[in-house]
User: Which sequence fits this backbone?
DNA sequence: ATAATCAAAATTATCTATAATTATGAAGGA
DNA sequence: TCCTTCATAATTATAGATAATTTTGATTAT
């Protein structure tokens, strides 16, 4: 199925998902032998998975004292939002020349899916897909990976806020971005995107 | 000396340095057993070091086929420069309110050191220190780390260009940035910084 | 002579077992 | 109550072994 099929990668993916969704809480210790046992693996690939999580900012490791799920303060959430805003705007500027009508239509569809999402997880997934669809045509893999990691960090904050009661908000920002792009107003789309990302990491709208 | 004293970290640092300076050329294979033998270590910490290099974008790993020093095309160099520009401007905006006269004076001194640098390595080191001195007061650790990694990638390109003959150029951009900051023109400083970073990854001035 | 095929070597990825260093927590004394 | 000491646990690292896969080299056939 997956071609990058190393045990360490699989473990890293699964743990990342647990951290993002909040199943593993901030500050929770990640003990290599326990994780290894759970996955029926040895400690070697587990340690490699920890390293990847560390690089993604999802875990922090103190030598000889183990690795824990990274916490996120108000300041860190703001930091991630600002980085995302800067990088997503950059990606959009570079993607704009390659955005076809078909891509914009696809983004529209994804946005509609998000509006009808039954829970936060589904909504977040659609949200991420929306952004990625618009930005991917920039053809800058390193930039896209950085944005991906930042989106994951953002999602942690989102899930921690609305865990129980929640209903899908129709996303006006997304529609406005698409409208601006269709009208060829790239700079304007960038401004809306920037504000959208910055405010997204804030209190409920 | 270093408190984060794990073998894997040490190995990663040394290998990163070799890659950045060009001692290890793009595409060169990194064989775990060879590296392990060189450092008198086992393969476990070596593999972890590889993972860190991979996350920093200095190496690429194909499962079952090993890891190689990352190549960098013209497009990738431009990508890194654009990311750096976006993030450094963001960092500068957030650092500006905390920039004291003392810090600006320190940056000035570092810049003078760079002008008198005997070789590319020394000049690059001063350059990096200059940027870091101005940006560190932003107090955004994740942002600073991302910038660090991007600067490392930039340095690779720089070293590959001017390996032999070289003489220190007096850096007008740096001076202009400092002048703008002293005059309280943060936005202007940001514009110069942006242009400076974008053009830095281009042909000789 | 060139191309295809197959065997051998090298390399990765993993596991198991073990040693050493360091942190954690509990018991006991000031 | 607070501090020291000690036992336990966890992390970090080593070593050796094994399976799978890739690469290399040699042999063979066209």
Assistant:
């Amino acid at each position: 199925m997956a071609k990058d099929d190393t045990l360490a990668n699989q473990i890293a993916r699964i743990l990342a998902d647990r951290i993002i969704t909040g199943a593993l809480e901030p500050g929770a210790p990640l003990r290599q032998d326990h994780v290894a046992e759970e996955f029926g693996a040895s400690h070697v690939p587990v340690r490699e998975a920890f390293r990847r999580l560390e690089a993604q900012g999802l875990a922090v490791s103190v030598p000889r004292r183990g690795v824990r799920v990274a916490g996120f303060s108000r300041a860190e959430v703001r930091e991630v939002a600002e980085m995302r805003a800067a990088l997503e705007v950059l990606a959009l500027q570079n993607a704009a020349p390659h955005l076809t009508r078909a891509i914009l239509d696809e983004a529209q569809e994804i946005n509609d899916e998000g509006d009808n999402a039954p829970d936060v997880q589904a909504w977040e997934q659609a949200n991420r897909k929306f952004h990625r669809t618009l930005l991917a045509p920039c053809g800058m893999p390193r930039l896209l990976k950085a944005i991906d990691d930042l989106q994951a960090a953002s999602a942690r904050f989102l899930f921690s806020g609305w865990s129980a009661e929640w209903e899908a908000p129709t996303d006006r920002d997304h529609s406005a971005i698409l409208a601006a792009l269709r009208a060829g107003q790239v700079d304007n789309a960038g401004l809306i995107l920037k504000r959208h990302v910055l405010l997204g990491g804030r209190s409920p709208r």
